[in-house]
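Example 3.2
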Amino acid sequence: MKIAIVGGGISGVTAAWYLSKQHDVSLFEANDYIGGHTDTHQIDIAGKTWSVDTGFIVFNEYNYPNFSQLLRELEVDAFDTEMSFSVHNADTGLHYNATNLNKLFCQRKNLVNPNFYRMIRDIVRFYKQSPDILKQPNNTQTVGEYLKKHHYSDVFIHDHLIPMACALWSGPSVSLLEMPVRYLIAFMANHKMLSLTRRPQWRVVDGGSNQYINQFIKRFSGQIHHSSAVEKIQRIDNGVVVTVNGQEQSFDAIVLACHSDQALSILADSSYDEATVLGNIDYQKNHMQLHTDESVLPPNKAAWASWNVYVSPALQEKCTVSYHMNTLQKLEAPVEFVVSLNSAERVDPEKVLVERHYAHPVYNEKTMAAQQRWADISGQRQTYFCGAYWGWGFHEDGVRSALNVVQQINGKAE
């Protein structure tokens, strides 16, 4: 079959890699690079070039089995990293690093702070109590409703749980409180985050995440079209017509591996099901800056972690988190490389190296309902859908959804 794939992120790359083993595949990407949220930058400082990731950064073998298999097939190496987490509350001055007891109490006054001990007790209680929600399949509570019902403290909510969720999903605190609580707990349980021990070992791709993209490009047998935004898709009998840069091309099938809202916008003849499913998934835009301004990290260096969340009531409408790349990628650089989301007012513009805008799915009841309807639209009229938005929004979800599409297509082709 002659197949077009729209979107060169992890889902499009995975679909292209496996489909090209049996089919003639053309991959179309609107940007001048492929990779999507796999976005590695070459930064020259002090006579040396540093490969710094700004989008996809970490994975683990346990929760990312399909992505790990893809890396092995592409012969891409990875190494262990530290996944630590810190919070700095701008209004109260509270800051801590949850790595170990010494760093947890790096702000020594917390040794005699009753609110801090209340937070710790609530963390332990939440880890023990929250899995019970998974036994209630019909529970429709939001995170906010659940926390209120079980009388969790404000310090636990606003200085621990919500900042952690913010760092995971790049979403503002207001939307995370509206997330279905079963969704949050299922994710945390799946990733062994509800245990103080036996957590999976996190890893980073050696040389930067785009190493797997580079290996894919070298080995891919199909065609890659950069700077080729698909303008329109029209379904016809036994095929599809794709318009790119004003030119029409015909294919036997098409895989939409872009964001759901982008997919809907280019379907010239979208069905009712496509419109209702794809249209019910919202996105949160995030402004990313790669910079060397360490002032955005906690004021106490002992509190610096891999993921550093900045909490302020004035910033509830956006996620403000900074990733310390020297720690995550083990960069022994003469400067601190920091990736910050939505922190432009705190970052010295003279120290900014790269700026990007990323979009992340918003996880609410509408999104959950839409995710259940993948089979209603994928495989209809020679059109297939994949993307991380069909799962928790992470790399493994993108790979898994692409494999589902590959199975659909190859099953029909047999």
